[in-house]
Amino acid sequence: MRKIAVYPGSFDPITNGHIDIIRRGLGITNKLIVLVSYNPDKSSLFSVEERMEMIQEVIGDDPRIKVDSFSGLLVDYAGKAGASIILRGLRAMSEFEYEFQLALINRRLDRDIETVFLMTGYKWFYTSSKIVKEAASFGGSVKGLVPDIVSRKLQEKYSNKR
Predict the structure, then answer these.
(1) Annotated catalytic residue, options 37, 84, 128, 129
(2) What are the domain boundaries of the chain?
(3) What sections of the chain are H helices per DSSP?
(4) DSSP secondary-structure letter at 121?
(5) Which of 23, 31, 66, 91 is flagged as catalytic?
(6) Known catalytic membership, residue 129
(7) 17 in Cβ contact with 25 (< 8 Å)
């Protein structure tokens, strides 16, 4: 049976923690859609297109992975894509309550779609896009926290803002 999962997030930018979840997610599904969300209430450093390009460059040509974007209800996208799983990564207990609420509302909206949580790898426990951007904005090295292409893109973004 073919299982399709959707891994949604802002990915602003994608980190090695995200890559860890993508790789491990492929162990429980046949196809994984990395879904870049557009949230008009959030201010993003990178455009949706830039984020999608970085993700595509990082994951390469793996036929099991698709990169896409959306705005709207996640369960609507998942249903149209034939996905039965929403994949979410968790770092800390503080994230669990919010993620649990999202999982419950998604389950209420579409009972055929399950949310699966993966704990982030211990190496990436304290890595977040927000922390990475903050360090990079002050000229700090984020090498090892993000793929090399992302590190370069962050340097470019912040050198243009100084």
Answers:
(1) 129
(2) 4-122
(3) 16-25, 48-59, 74-81, 93-109, 129-137, 148-161
(4) P
(5) 91
(6) yes
(7) no
- Is 161 considered catalytic here? no
Question: Tell me: the pLDDT tens digits for 137-152?
Answer: 999 999 999 999 999 9
Structure confidence at residue 43 as a pLDDT band (50, 70, 90): confident
- Predicted local distance difference test score (pLDDT) of residue 103: 93
Look at domain 4-122 and name its CATH class.
Answer: alpha beta
pLDDT value at position 108?
Answer: 95
Q: How far apart are the first and last CA of the chain?
A: 52
Task: Compute the distance between CA of residue 104 and CA of residue 99 in angstroms, rounded to an integer.
Answer: 9
Amino acid found at 57:
E
Q: What torsion, rounded to 10 degrees, do the Cα atoms 77, 82, 85, 90 define?
A: -40
Is 151 a catalytic site residue? no
CA–CA separation, 138 and 159 (whole Å): 10
Residue 24's SS3 state is helix
Give the span between the Cα atoms of 71 and 7, in whole angstroms: 14
Report pLDDT digits (tens) over 89-125: 988 766 788 889 999 999 999 999 999 999 888 888 7
